[in-house]
Specification:
Elements (H helix, E strand, L loop, with lengths): L3 H12 L5 E5 L6 H13 L13 H8 L5 E4 L11 H10 L5 H8 L10 H11 L9 E6 L6 H12 L5 E7 L7 H4 L3 E4 L11 H17 L2 H12 L4 H22 L10 H9 L4 H17 L4 H15 L1
Parallel strand pairs: 1-4, 1-5, 2-3, 3-4
Helix pairs in contact: 1-2, 4-5, 6-7, 9-10, 10-14, 11-12, 11-13, 13-14
Length: about 325
């Protein structure tokens, strides 16, 4: 473990003061699952030393193949439960630790379809945790995208997260902490996974110029220019690309909010982000995030992309 975050996690384990539930906040594609698994491997390893797992014990060997029987995964699916899709999950995580939401959809064969964590997944995990750990030590539940839990699933897991059995560790990885059930979020130790690279936002190369065009046209006050940016969104090659643009846009809006509040992005904010943060009202990021979220929901409901993009521009212009 070499980064400050990983060193801090190792320090928690070494001191015996590990929060029973940790919420990692990453940008899409930020490698949160890899960080979580490294932390859990270190927690489970009985021969760890100097901030590193031994890498050779039976526990470490099982972690290297994602087959430890006391580590359970929950992630959004379109049908069935996560357990039905473990083969595809393992293959993706092992081959591409910094995978994105789009990568997971592709791996599960559900591109363009909605996915969620339904109550069946919560019941399945609760049933599993009612039994003893198969190897007699820690048990862990890794939840990828808890913001995609429906209300019933979130409520069922809440009690377990509030009062977990002994030696039970919950790790959640979110791209939108504000969408995670407040009562779950409040019971977790939230840790930010610092973006890597200049911005750390997945999709920068593909969507960065389009987002910049949208923001600059909005700030210019030209409705015509803003609608032109909306036309460019509508002209993206696929519905999935439009969906990913909304996710990217929401990430950039969060960066603007953090800069406005004097917080840290983990890296120096870009000149663009700093300029936008100075130019927009303090209320804009919250309203803009709602606008991108609304657009994302419309896309997932198969609403015409041109209608979605026009509505998005109108919402953003109104709240500027």
């Amino acid at each position: 473990m070499t980064t400050p975050l990983k060193a801090a996690l190792a320090g928690m384990v070494d001191s015996g003061k590990v929060p029973h539930a940790i919420l990692f906040h990453e940008d899409d594609g930020g490698g949160g699952v890899a960080v979580a698994l490294e932390f859990l491997q270190y927690l489970f390893c009985n021969s760890r030393q100097d901030g590193e797992p031994c890498g050779e014990c039976p526990s470490c060997n099982k972690f290297s193949k994602l087959i430890h029987p006391d580590v359970h995964f929950i992630f959004p699916v379109n049908q069935g439960t996560s357990r039905d899709h473990l083969k595809a999950w393992r293959s993706l995580v092992l081959s591409k630790p910094g995978f994105t939401e789009a990568d997971l959809s592709a791996a599960l064969g559900i591109e363009g379809k909605s996915s969620l964590i339904a109550v069946a997944q919560a019941r399945e995990i609760l049933d599993t945790l009612s039994l003893s750990a198969l190897e007699g030590g820690y048990r862990a539940v890794l939840v990828y995208l808890p913001e995609k839990m429906n209300q019933e699933a979130a409520n069922r897991l809440l009690k377990m997260i509030e009062e977990p059995p002994a030696l039970t560790q919950f790790v959640l990885i979110t791209h939108a902490p504000e969408k995670v059930l407040v009562t779950i979020r409040s019971r977790c130790q939230t840790l930010r996974i610092a973006p890597s690279g200049q911005t750390g936002v997945a999709g920068e190369e593909q969507f960065g110029p389009l987002f910049a065009s949208l923001m600059d046209s909005l700030l210019s006050g030209s409705l015509l220019d803003a609608l032109e940016a909306g036309e460019q969104i509508a002209a993206l090659p696929s519905r999935e690309d439009a969906r990913r643009f909304c996710i990217y846009g929401a990430s950039r809006i969060r960066d603007i909010f953090v800069v406005q509040q004097g917080g840290s992005l983990g890296v120096e904010p870009t000149a663009q982000t700093a300029r936008w943060a100075r130019a927009v009202r303090k209320t804009f990021p919250h309203n803009a995030l709602d606008s991108f979220t609304a657009a994302l929901k419309l896309i997932e409901r198969n609403v015409n992309i041109k209608i979605v993009s026009t509505d998005l521009v109108d919402r953003l212009m109104t709240n500027l």
